[in-house]
Write a structure and sequence with these properties.
Number of helices of chain A: 11
CATH architecture of the largest domain in chain B: 3-Layer(aba) Sandwich
Shape of chain B: globular
Helix content of chain A: over 70%
Oligomer: heterodimer
Largest sheet of chain A: 4 strands, antiparallel
Largest interface: A-B, 31 and 28 residues
Distance between the termini of chain A: 28 Å
Number of strands of chain A: 4
Radius of gyration of chain B: 17 Å
Helix content of chain B: 25-40%
Number of domains of chain A: 2
Largest sheet of chain B: 6 strands, mixed
Chain lengths: 319, 226
């Protein structure tokens, strides 16, 4: 009898290809199943798509904000108001000295007379100044930090150091609001991450529940398959591939939604940029990020179906 | 081929379905199990197919000691056993061909080989012309024959049938039994549970009667065939 069984059983090589064949069959079969129930498949994948599009879109919005505000780094500057007793020459000397620091891009001294001229020109208080006896304005050293504003601690340190330079009355960091914006954006990034994780969890559960129902609907089939010698892996496979399909198709739908939203926003963004006298091309997701979204979607689909399969498949035994 | 030594099966409800069963079936034998419903026929078949595990006792099936057979190895073990049910257990969303092909797909056969074997099995039960049909469009007798084709397509060493003619008229029943006889003649060990004594007695095969989960009678084959 054993001779007979071994004779008709495929050899090792044939088994390896049979294994691949079985995977290919599950892949096609599970896709075919989605295709045969288009409405419910569409609903499930649309839910997954929306759940993935939301964090992806928010991420994209933040990237765009970051790209816009990136140009503001250069306009950040620290103004050092010097003590009234400091002369213009001493101010020049201080500027040279500060310029030598590593974290300083450039430092420029503005003498008292120049400061007065600038103030007269920009403030509109020229008449009031004429009423004064002398020049009330101190000399100023304008320092351009040599670091990104995103590094608030080091900027803070720089301002602190400069304030302690002899002759400096007060150091004022301009564009503090840029820093605040960065802080807000960082918070928003965390927020997007949290929302992303929660929605990812939702995708996991949606896929898990769909696969669970699928398993229940195909209870008879599973019992029969077990009776005629199907391994757990064989029975599991089409469900796992089903989960992968849900994830991938949902991910694709999500990407399409993001792209559509981007197209929808492009015109008003251009108009807005035009009002600010500039031009701005909305950043696209890019191939790399899009691929990551698909990969995450696939992993979530697989994970969800794995959860369902692990919990519910072993319950079904032939009676 | 099949050996039962002091096998007892008690269900969790406390009901004893089989008690102290001793039984030996040789390779290539054809055996009928008879007895009223509840006598333990189905339980005995389920034990052989590892659908149930014995509460006590030793069982050897197809050279394997079932006591030491782990859960992981059950699928491979079952591929050597063809099972036929009274309600045939066909998958209604698949064609006759796909139903019969299922064991071969599970065992990982190639497409051409599957086609060849499925058609051979369908030819054997005279249903080759219905391979594209769906089970619901077939008569009860035809559905049962599809079930038989699925059970034998893998050429199992053992064929188990639980009341395979339960829903069929006498003429169809004889036809089905004749099929089992043919499989037996090419070397398959066949166990058929049936309460229809009028049908099986004339076939002259070994007949094991069960009553209340115990072996009541073991009548050897007469050599004569119906």
């Amino acid at each position: 009898m054993n001779a007979r069984t071994s004779q008709r059983r495929p050899d090792v090589h044939a088994r390896a290809s049979a294994w691949l064949l079985s995977h290919a069959r599950s892949l096609v079969f599970s896709l075919g199943k989605l295709y045969r129930t288009p409405l419910s498949s569409l609903m499930t994948t649309a839910v997954i798509g929306i759940a993935l599009a939301l964090p992806t879109g928010m991420y994209l919005m933040l990237s765009n904000l970051e790209a816009i505000s990136g140009g503001w780094d250069e306009s950040a500057q620290v103004s050092l108001f010097l003590k009234p007793s400091v002369s213009d020459e001493q101010a020049e000397e201080l500027a040279r000295q500060i310029q030598r620091r590593d974290d300083v891009g450039s430092a420029q001294a503005i003498g008292k007379a120049a400061a007065l001229a600038e103030f007269r020109e920009l403030s509109g208080f020229g008449a009031a100044l004429d009423a004064l006896d002398g020049n009330p304005l101190p000399a100023v050293v304008v320092v351009q930090p040599g670091l990104a504003l995103k590094d608030p601690l080091r900027i803070q340190q720089l301002v602190y150091d400069l304030e302690r330079e002899p002759g400096v009355e007060r150091a004022q960091l301009d564009l503090q609001w840029v820093q605040r914006l960065y802080a807000i954006m960082e918070t928003a990034q965390r927020g997007v991450l949290v929302i992303g994780i929660m929605l990812g969890l939702a995708v996991l559960l949606v896929v898990g529940n769909t696969i669970r129902l699928d398993i229940q609907n195909r209870r008879d089939e599973i019992e029969v398959a077990k009776l005629i010698g199907a391994t757990d892996a064989f029975i599991r496979r089409p469900f796992l591939y089903g989960g992968i399909w849900y994830g991938v198709i949902g991910g694709l739908l999500g990407l399409i939604m993001v792209e559509a939203a981007l197209g929808f926003l492009a015109a008003p963004v251009n108009r807005l940029a035009g009002l600010y006298g500039g031009q701005y091309q909305l950043l696209d997701l890019g191939a790399g990020a899009a691929f990551s979204v698909l990969l995450i979607a696939m992993a979530l689909g697989l994970g969800g179906s794995w959860l369902a399969v692990g919990r519910h498949l072993s319950d079904i035994e032939p009676r | 081929m099949i050996l039962f030594q002091n096998v007892t099966k008690r269900y969790p409800t406390g009901q004893e379905a089989l008690g102290q069963m001793n039984l030996e079936v040789d390779a290539g034998e054809m055996v009928f199990l008879t007895g009223h419903s509840g006598a333990g026929k189905s339980t005995l078949l389920k034990l052989i197919a590892m659908i149930e595990r014995p509460t006590r006792g030793r069982m050897v099936v197809n050279g394997k000691n079932l006591h030491t057979l782990t859960r992981r190895r059950i699928p491979q073990f079952r591929r050597d056993i063809g099972i036929i049910f009274q309600d045939h257990h066909l998958l209604h969303d698949r064609s006759v061909f796909d139903n019969v092909a299922l064991p071969l797909i599970i065992a990982g056969y190639r497409q051409q080989e599957i086609g060849r074997r499925v058609r051979a099995a369908l030819d054997k039960v005279s249903l080759l012309h219905k391979e594209k049909a769906f089970p619901v469009t077939l008569s009860t007798g035809e559905q049962q024959r599809v079930g038989i084709a699925r059970a034998v397509v893998n050429r199992p060493a053992i064929l188990l049938a639980d009341e395979p003619t339960g829903n069929l008229d006498p003429a169809l029943s004889r036809e089905i039994m004749g099929l089992f006889d043919e499989f037996n003649q090419v070397g398959t060990t066949v166990l058929v549970a049936s309460h229809d004594l009028d049908l099986i007695a004339p076939m002259g095969k070994r007949m094991i009667s069960l009553k209340g989960g115990r072996l009541q009678d073991d009548e050897p084959a007469r050599g004569a065939s119906a």
